[in-house]
TrEMBL record, chain A:
GO MF term list: alpha-1,6-mannosyltransferase activity
Keywords assigned: Golgi apparatus, Membrane, Signal, Signal-anchor, Transmembrane, Transmembrane helix
Top-rank taxon, per record: Eukaryota
Keyword Transcription regulation applies: no
Record organism: Aspergillus avenaceus
Pfam family, one: Anp1
Protein name: Anp1-domain-containing protein
Cellular component terms per the entry's GO annotation: mannan polymerase complex
PANTHER family xref list: MANNAN POLYMERASE COMPLEXES SUBUNIT MNN9, MANNAN POLYMERASE II
UniProt record, GO biological process: cell wall mannoprotein biosynthetic process; protein N-linked glycosylation
Subcellular compartments: Golgi apparatus membrane
Annotated signal sequence range: 1-37
Keyword Nucleotide-binding in annotation: no
Membrane topology, record value: Single-pass type II membrane protein
From TrEMBL, chain B:
Assigned protein family: Belongs to the ANP1/MMN9/VAN1 family.
Signal sequence interval, chain numbering: none
UniProt cross-references to Pfam families, sorted A to Z: Anp1
UniProt-annotated stretches for the region Disordered: 394-510
KW Cell membrane (keyword) present: no
Name the UniProt record assigns to this protein: Anp1-domain-containing protein
Coiled coil: none
Cell compartments where the protein resides: Golgi apparatus membrane
Segments passing through the bilayer: 47-65
Length: 379, 510
């Protein structure tokens, strides 16, 4: 018996078979399974690796390699000369197919798990998504950042496919004028101007430091948007509009009907009216027009009320003069040309409404999707 | 690979001991682990070899599997490889990058932005400035925008940047370096005349503003405390300029910009007229203009009567003196990054009837930032002659040529005159001298007529009578030479005639 084994083992056929088996084994181990999960995994992994910047001194929209090269003389190698050809940067209706990078920007006051879960569920390739947050430097902000970092940590160490290209967390360098984030206090007219001016500065700080040279689209998403279609990015970019805004609604329990219902939430998306313009003309240079206040009867056409909730046509588009910022898709070029959120009365408008006006001054038209809904958190 | 060293019955394949086949020495059944072990080892080696080769093949055939292969080969130990190699989460506190008056001590990062177009001729000068900057280089991030360039600006920039970053001096390399390419379809050509023509200004300024915004938005990072805008065509500036401007701790600060001129234009001139204080006249003028109009400074079309930073310069004034401004020029601006973070940019539309850097100053003011200029701290812009200047220079050149031509003609004429109408005074004097001599000899002869030497004097007279006709005939060089040698003895004016002859010779050569 001990004699026979060497005979069998030494047959050349065995080696061929072994090689074949080994090869087959490896193929089985590594082959992309038809369920395609592994394919995208491998592709995206590679894409991530190639997309990573060599040096920490790089655009925040890029991850960077932790290990740094060292020069021959022992000094750390200086950052490389990096070229960005912005001529080849596109923002088209086939954003996902062309691999256009999207930057999701969120001014964060409170962290809602629902918000993050919704973002993670977005079906746009995650390796093309970078996210930026700006959080006030307050106690509430610290709590929010702690929760946010935990959620990010889970996602970024989870399955490769659901990891985002990069996440930047910024702490604001100025105090928000209003300490209370309470709904009622927040919406008082006299507080609104200060609040929205501070909000504008936060948005601009976030935008101009994280935009970077690779971004094709910027999606502004408020931290209290807890529900949106998973194809939100694809759907909004499909219209190929410089500025486009879906309708922001809120789910609530309707006590009259005894069931869950929806109601409009964001009233900042509107078409201008003559009375609003004459109202603006009568104002001082530092006064602003706000929507949704009895003191300021603007009679503007509000997109929030134009929705057809019974038989929605999500593809319906309308031109707008003012936009809301709860969810807002902007071509990066619009921001690059200088369209920002005015922290001062710009044609008596501030923040997102002023942004729409500034975009218009730069030659970009804003659009709205009255039947395409995202849902605001209900407190 | 001798597999037949033993028979199946267990006997050795070859005789052992004393040639006896049936020797039953105790060594007979000694196990032979060596070959077996070796075989197993070989097998394992072969398996590994095959595995390696097939892996290699896989990697070669399917490059996209590389990412999947790595964790498999490392048996999952490195499966979280991305976590250890790639950092995806960044955290920044913007309150740490506010910008202070002594940023170089606190390690504050500066973003230096330079828009370039057809600037290859300025690059060597610009890089010599860069190399000499005293602000710690590793704290400065460089950002370039190359747009609509027809020359080799990009290639040249690359070479010089690579050279800068690989410099052996560890203090030389800069921080992050971004080179942005973006063409805006510049309709206006870049020559000085069309660039500074009034009609083209508004459109040109808007395009410039757009370019500046693209550059800034692509390169501003949450780590920057300051942003320094610097044009490539600055000829002379202090190497300490960043520190000098930073020391004032203002939100936006600009130096005075002049340019040197050729002497015939007065030696120097204010260059950047975009730094000014607002005036009532200008505000009233702005009221009358329509929404898209752009007021540009330095043109007669808009008389604004604004106090300009440039005109307030005193070469011996205190360089630290500050002046409040409303509009600023873009040649050299130092601004805190928080200005740009809060949204101030270079409006590419008419903002309060201004565009680009002037509107930048206005917008910064609108948001409550301090905008300041230094009237007595001057940097010098490169002098590029304008079309008028070029025309004038051409005229001057022609004038100079005409003058030279005239002079040379004059010289030629005088030489010719000299040649044709030679000053015969020395010759005549020589003749006179000869005649005097002759007369003297005649006198002598007369006095010596009593003496018996008559035939000799007659001979001499014959000789002098023969020579005078030859004097004007200067073709006979030998004759004149002989005359000269004779003159040397007799006439004192000889040196005067020599230069005249030489000059004539030169004129002839020409």
């Amino acid at each position: 018996m001990a004699v026979a084994r060497p005979m069998r083992r030494t047959s050349p056929i065995t080696f061929i078979l072994a090689a074949f088996l080994a090869f087959g084994f490896l193929v089985f181990l590594l082959s992309p399974s038809p369920s395609a999960a592994t394919t995208t995994n491998a592709d995206s992994s590679q894409q991530r690796r190639e997309g990573a910047a060599e040096n920490p001194l790089s655009p925040p929209t890029k991850p960077f390699l932790k290990s740094q090269p060292v020069r021959d003389d022992g000094y750390q190698a200086p950052p490389p000369v990096v070229h960005y050809n912005l001529n080849s940067l596109t923002s088209t209706s086939e954003s996902a197919v062309k691999g256009e990078r999207v930057l999701i920007l969120t001014p964060l006051a409170r962290f809602y798990q629902g918000f993050w879960d919704n973002v993670v569920k977005l079906s746009y390739p995650h390796e093309l998504i970078s996210i930026g947050f700006i959080v006030p430097n307050t106690k509430d902000g610290n709590t929010a950042v702690a929760a946010l970092e935990e959620a990010i940590g889970k996602t970024q160490s989870g399955p490769v496919d659901s990891r985002f290209a990069s996440v930047s967390i910024l702490r604001q360098d100025f105090d928000p004028p209003l300490q209370s984030q309470d709904e009622k206090e927040r919406h008082k007219l006299e507080n609104q101007k200060k609040r929205r001016e501070s909000m504008s500065r936060a948005r601009n700080s976030l935008l101009f430091t994280t935009l970077g040279p690779d971004t094709s689209w910027v999606l502004w998403l408020d931290s209290d948007i807890v529900e949106s279609p998973h194809s939100l990015i694809q759907d909004l970019t499909a219209h190929n509009a410089p500025v486009i805004v879906p309708n922001c609604y809120q789910r609530y329990y309707n006590n009259d009907k005894k069931k869950w219902d929806v109601r409009p939430y964001d009233f900042n998306s509107w078409i201008d009216s003559g009375s609003a313009q004459s109202l603006a003309e009568s104002m001082g240079p530092d006064d602003i027009l706000l929507e949704g206040y009895a003191e300021l009867p603007t009679y503007r056409t509000l997109m929030a009320y134009l929705a057809n909730t019974d038989d929605p046509n999500p593809k319906r588009v309308m031109e707008l003069d003012g936009v809301g910022g709860t969810a807002l898709m902007v071509k990066a070029d619009v921001h690059r040309d200088g369209a920002m959120f005015p922290p001062f009365p710009f044609y008596h408008l501030v923040e997102t409404e002023g942004f729409a006006k500034m975009a218009k001054r730069l030659g970009y038209q804003a659009f709205g999707l009255p039947d395409y809904f995202v849902y605001h958190f209900n407190e | 690979m001798n597999r037949h060293h033993a028979f199946t019955n267990g006997y050795a394949a070859y005789p052992r001991g004393h040639g006896s086949t049936f020797s039953i020495s105790p060594h007979r059944f000694q196990p032979r682990p060596q070959p077996a072990l070796r075989r197993r080892k070989q097998l394992i080696q072969r398996l590994f070899l095959i595995g390696g080769v097939s892996l290699l093949l896989l990697v070669l055939i399917f490059p996209s599997w590389r990412a999947a292969l790595l964790p498999v080969v490392s048996l999952g130990l490195l499966s979280s490889g991305e976590d250890t190699q790639i950092q995806t989460v960044r955290y920044y506190d913007l309150s740490a990058v506010q910008g202070t008056g002594n940023g170089w001590e606190k390690g504050e990062r500066v973003l230096m932005c330079t828009p370039l177009r057809d600037a290859s001729s300025h690059l060597p000068m610009f890089f010599s400035h860069l190399r000499n900057m005293t602000y710690p280089h590793h704290l400065i991030d460089l950002a370039f925008l190359v747009s609509d360039s027809k020359d080799d600006t990009l290639g040249m920039l690359n070479r010089m940047l690579e050279e800068l970053q690989t410099d052996s001096d560890p203090k030389m390399p800069y921080g992050e370096i971004s080179v942005i390419q973006k063409d805006f379809g510049q309709k206006v050509t870049q020559d000085v005349e069309s660039r500074h023509g009034f009609a083209a200004q508004a459109g040109r300024r808007k395009l410039m503003a757009q370019a500046r915004n693209w550059l800034l938005s692509a390169t501003l990072r949450p780590t920057h405390s300051w942003v320094y805008w610097r044009d490539a065509d600055v000829e002379t500036a202090p190497f300490t300029i960043i520190e000098d401007l930073m020391r004032h701790d203002k939100d936006v600060i600009v130096p005075n910009v002049w340019r040197p001129l050729p002497d015939w234009l007065g030696g120097e001139q204010p260059y950047d007229l975009n730094s000014w204080q607002e005036s009532e006249t200008a505000l009233a003028l702005a009221e009358t203009l329509d929404e898209d109009a752009v007021i540009v400074e330095g043109y007669a079309e808009y008389a604004t009567w604004r106090p300009h930073l440039a005109y307030l310069r005193d070469p011996y004034g205190d360089p630290d003196m500050e002046m409040e401004l409303d509009g600023v020029g873009g040649v050299s601006i130092l601004a805190k990054a928080k200005v740009f973070r809060s949204g101030v940019h270079f409006p590419a539309f008419s903002f309060e009837k201004h565009a680009e850097t002037e509107a930048f100053g206005k917008m910064a003011k609108r948001m409550g930032f301090s905008v300041v200029g230094l009237p007595h701290y001057t940097i010098w812009h490169l002098y590029e002659p304008s079309v008028d200047d070029l025309r004038h220079m051409e005229e001057m050149e022609e004038e100079r040529k005409a003058r030279e031509k005239e002079e040379s003609e004059q010289a030629e004429r005088s030489a010719r005159v000299n040649n044709l109408f030679r000053d015969i005074k020395p010759e005549s004097e020589a003749d006179n001298a000869i005649i005097r001599d002759n007369m003297q000899t005649e006198k002598d002869e007369l006095t010596a007529s009593e003496n018996p030497k008559k035939p000799e004097a007659g001979k001499a007279e014959e000789a002098t009578a023969q020579k005078p006709p030859k004097v004007p005939g200067q073709e006979d060089q030998k004759a004149s030479d002989s005359w000269k040698s004779k003159d040397l003895k007799d006439a004192e004016e000889v040196p005067a005639i020599k230069p005249a002859k030489e000059q004539a010779g030169v004129a002839h050569d020409e």
